[in-house]
Design brief:
Structural class: alpha+beta
Low-confidence stretches: none
Mean pLDDT: 90
Number of strands: 3
Order of helices and strands: HEHEEH
Number of helices: 3
Distance between the termini: 31 Å
Strand order of the largest sheet: 1-3-2
Shape: globular
Strand content: 5-15%
Length: about 120
């Protein structure tokens, strides 16, 4: 499992995890699309925005390996802002390649793409 050096481990000041420390010995957690409802808590929305900003700053519009990125956090973006970069795609692989759909990501999380310090 590739560890993305320099990628934030969590949202500062919270328990919202962005990366995992080690591979799951029971098997890889698959990526599944999770529905984001309008009434989600502000803290959840902040975590999604911060994770999107970290993805953009770390990988940009280039394909990247899933590696140690948290499956739960990726699943909130999966199938919309984060899509497979290869065909066939294995949702249960740490080596799977992903890519940002930048146009959808900018529409969903405009504040993640703004210049300057992120709150």
């Amino acid at each position: 499992m590739l560890k993305h050096r320099g990628f934030p481990g969590r949202l500062p000041g919270s328990d919202f995890q962005f990366t995992i420390r080690r591979a799951n010995p029971k098997g890889v957690t698959p990526l599944v699309a999770r529905e984001r409802f309008r009434d989600r808590r502000p803290a959840d929305r902040r975590a999604d925005t911060a994770f999107m900003r970290a993805l953009w700053e770390h990988f940009g519009d280039q394909p990247f390996e899933r590696g140690n990125l948290d499956a739960g956090r990726l699943s909130w973006l999966w199938g919309r802002e984060v899509i497979p970069a290869e065909d066939p795609f294995d949702a249960e692989s740490y080596e799977a390649l992903l890519i940002l759909d930048v146009s959808k990501a900018r529409a969903s999380f405009p504040e993640a793409f703004e210049e300057g310090e992120f709150p």
